[in-house]
Amino acid sequence: MTDWIGNVFTSDVGWTHLERLVDIGTRMAGSDGEREAAELTRDALADAGARNARLESFDIQGWTREGSEITAGETSQNCIALPRSPADRATAPLVDLGYGLPADFEATDLEGAIVMVRSDIPDYYDRYLHRREKYYHAVENGAVGFVYRNHVEGCLPPTGSVGTDEDPIGEIPAVGVSSEVGARLARRFDGEEIELIVEADIGPATSQNVHAELGPDTDERVLVTSHVDAHDIAEGAVDNGAGTAMVVELANALAAREDDLETRVEFVAYGAEEVGLVGSNYHAEWADYDAINAVVNNDGVVSDRTLSLTTHGFDGLESAADEIANRYDHPIETVPKLGPHSDHWPFVQWGVPGYHVKSTSDEVGRGWGHTFADTIEKLEPRTLREQAILLTDLVVELAREDATIEHRDPDAIAADLEAQDLADGMRVTGDWPYDKRSD
Known about the structure:
It is found in: Endoplasmic reticulum; Golgi apparatus; Lysosome; Secreted. It comes from Haloterrigena salifodinae. It is built from 13 helices and 14 strands. It has helices spanning about 5-10, 15-20, 30-50, 100-105, 130-140, 180-190, 235-255, 280-285, 315-330, 345-350, 380-400, 410-420, 425-430, and strands spanning about 50-70, 75, 80, 90-95, 115-120, 145-150, 175, 195-215, 220-225, 265-270, 290-300, 305-310, 330-335, 355-360. The radius of gyration is 21 Å and the shape is globular. The protein starts with a helix and ends in an 11-residue tail after the last helix. It is an alpha/beta fold. Strands 1, 2, 3, 4, 5, 6, 7, 8, 9, 10, 11, 12, 13 and 14 form a 14-stranded mixed beta sheet that branches.
């Protein structure tokens, strides 16, 4: 039966939910807006036909933006604080470190300096460097302040959190500046003393995960996930309203195909992803990894028409995606490398098969994401519907009783991280988990 395909292609369930999310205002982790978004998502999953739709709350380190400033010479330069920056100030010489590659930090004396780095990497470099990795290289090398310069033009200062699991608030004040402000700082004030100020309200807060279920009441399950929070400076349409809208659309489609599900499908919209994967780490602490057949994590979908699935070295996940692509004669990109960012990772790092589902992109980094420009008019309902058709059938495929996708040994995951030059960066940011595990 293919009637469900027509129903998905004419559905407005996911897009309507996306509109509701972006119209809330701020969905910052721990905020009233994040709570409202979680409640709307819980209700949307229940309305779609999922059972046991509920919220599970947990404590987080709250952080609320109050103000930030860079003073250079007699000028004031526009900037925004990076979430979980300490409320602090620094006065020191500015050092423009360009791309901020690990070798750049090793070769430069940053003791007592304010360091500025770009948000991208050079064409010749073979892996993406996360903002937090650059931040903690700055901390390790004695910097007293951190300026993160967007590489995307358009007067768009970038946001994005600092901090670690053990120390949620970072060690030195950190701000984002636009490409244009960064160029001005580098041209006029490199080597000159500047002042950086961050003001923030820091204290305990509460976030929540949304859970709901479809299919038979088996112990084994397929997780279909997203994150419901977003940074406070924009609507968070791509990152990650679209992912949560996709989860709702998939629940609506799968409810109509519930007889096709041979394994439980659990929908989870996580809170507090943008401040360190807090919600998914909370879930992973008590989850039974052996009972999770696969994770389908939607973070970055709908921004381009072609799906890109990071498969983390799980051959069975790549085969399942190829099967769906062939079934529909529709391209799906698969990326076998590891991607240790977003809510699949607390599970994948311990060998649970997991996709990071997003759209293809030729850009380095997040594009409009983490800026004021992450708004809904850059997305199209058509793309959400097309991708929902492919992902609905993919989830049904993963939920088959005979769809055995082998878990990986965590030691093999760790070895791949080393081989792909990701391990050192994870150690710098405090994200390397393998030294902490008990036997």
